[in-house]
Design goal:
The protein is 32% helix and 16% strand. It is an alpha/beta fold. The longest helix has 21 residues. Belongs to the cytidine and deoxycytidylate deaminase family.
Length: 474
């Protein structure tokens, strides 16, 4: 067990990278019809690349491809000229169609996951015509890259020591896992271990290329031949494997298990949209995003993540359907302050003047402060928090007009030292969805057809720069 004071943090670069991978897995609430066209430039339609739009190191957009549009095209539609000076993190290297528009918008940097690109290079045996087109597109991407001001690169940072161990330890303690474990008197957390192994196998097949020679061939085709030599190649593959391991471990902490899910414990009025929960797959997906954010915490005792999404009246062009990103945050000290300037005390025996609680900005507060979209009163909005919101945050959430809270309720109704959680249970006007075993009433969860997503494929770029602990592949 890692002792207090030694909690490792996830770097922002790796957080953005993990978010891009996770957005590729944004769930569909309805079955998408496969294209009847034998070939279109969207690729093999087996993947729907994810995209994270970052400005001033803050996330302002989370997107994934739809059946009609690539993530890069969706970003252009959603953000337009506001993409200027932004950093974009793709789960696959964007194709030339996306890249030319993104470069034209004046983005600062484009980072991508160095595996199979948007237009797949792995299907030569089944569709040589598609693979030939992918190779031609790779050449076009390279020419665009070499003639643009934007830095097209791969940014992967090695995880800090004990990060994987820390993520695994904290994941087994998450509310979802603990409640399932308590409901299984004859078992321990073996179900979590099995789920984690299943997620690791699944995500490795999605995001990694098991065959090293094939991986080298793809890297060379997309202009990353400098990474095909050791130690760069072995380091790259290890960094990729570690990040996939972290993602699988966090995802396993919010598993699909029996009837467990996020349900409204209050009587449901099914004619009111705000009382209807999201499909469980969507709720789990967003809670895992919040869990990833928690590993950026500056609180030595408890990491908390929060993310706000909202739902438009009709389905948009985004692969997220009617859902759109509003803001996110984690608990930390005020922006611009020195990390060591504030106390980290959390022992109730210590003098109250030297305790951290009066200085830490809560995850919900940061999510509201740095939101990129306004919260509209006529649209359903929801905040996902890894911990029960405290009495300091509950009035803020309600005052902001958020319609739903998804959270663990482990501290609801309790008072811990300077932090009280009494207001959460008494909150009216905001629907609360907490982890529980669903019954007949709770299982009447909204399966909103507006939340449909599409699918698709990705492309890639070149050399090597060492910047501190960062491996920058440009």
């Amino acid at each position: 067990m890692l002792s207090t004071g030694q909690m490792p943090r996830l770097s922002k670069v790796n957080l953005f990278t993990l978010f891009s991978l996770w957005m590729e897995l944004f769930p569909s609430a309805e079955q998408q019809k496969k294209s009847q066209v034998k070939y279109n430039y969207l690729g093999d339609n087996e993947n729907k690349p994810g995209l994270v739009v970052v400005k001033n190191m803050k996330i302002i957009g989370l997107h994934c491809s739809s059946t009609d549009l690539h993530a890069g095209q969706i970003a252009l539609i959603k953000h337009g000229s506001r993409l200027k000076n932004c950093d974009l993190y793709f789960s696959r290297k964007p194709c030339s169609t996306c890249l030319k528009m993104i470069v034209n918008a004046g983005v600062n940097r484009i980072s991508y996951w160095p595996a199979d690109p948007e237009i797949s290079l792995q299907n030569e045996a089944s569709n040589p015509i598609t693979t030939d087109d992918a190779k031609l597109d790779a050449k076009a991407v390279e020419r665009l890259k070499s003639n643009s001001r934007a830095r097209v690169c791969v940014l992967l940072q090695p995880l800090v020591c004990y990060m994987v161990q820390f993520v695994e330890e904290t994941s087994t303690k998450f509310d979802f896992i603990q409640k399932i474990a308590k409901s299984q008197p004859d078992s321990n957390t073996d179900f979590y271990t099995a789920c984690r192994q299943e997620r690791i196998k699944e995500y490795e097949s999605l995001f990694l290329i098991s065959n090293e020679e094939m991986h080298k061939q793809i890297l060379m085709t997309i202009g990353l031949e400098n990474l095909c030599e050791n130690p760069y190649f072995s380091n790259l593959r290890q960094n990729m494997k570690d990040l996939v391991l972290v993602l699988a471990t966090v995802a396993a902490s919010v598993p699909v298990f029996g009837c467990f899910g996020f349900y409204n414990s209050e009587p449901q009025r099914t004619n009111e949209t705000d009382h209807q929960g999201l499909p469980q797959e969507i709720a789990r997906h967003c809670m895992i995003q919040a869990r990833l954010l928690a590993y950026r915490t500056e609180d030595h005792k408890t990491g908390v993540g929060a993310i706000i999404w909202a739902e438009e009246k009709s389905r948009s062009c985004d692969g997220t359907g009617a859902m759109y990103f509003v803001g996110c945050g984690y608990n930390a000290f005020p922006v611009g302050s020195e990390y060591a300037d504030f106390p980290h005390m959390d022992d109730k025996q210590k003098d109250r003047e030297i305790r951290k609680f009066r200085y830490i900005i809560h995850a919900e507060q940061n999510a509201l402060t740095f939101r990129c979209r306004e919260i509209k009163p006529d649209e359903r909005s929801m905040i996902f928090v890894t911990k029960c919101p405290c009495d300091e945050c509950v009035p803020l959430i309600k005052g902001a007009g958020i319609k739903q809270i998804y959270a663990g309720d482990v501290d609801a109704g309790k008072k811990k030292a300077d932090i009280s959680y009494m207001k959460f249970g008494e909150l009216e006007g905001v629907n609360k969805f907490t982890v529980m075993e669903g019954g007949v009433n709770e299982l009447m969860v909204s399966q909103n057809p507006m939340l449909g997503i599409g699918a698709h494929g990705t492309k890639s770029s070149n050399s090597i720069i060492i910047v501190g602990d960062m491996l920058g592949y440009t």
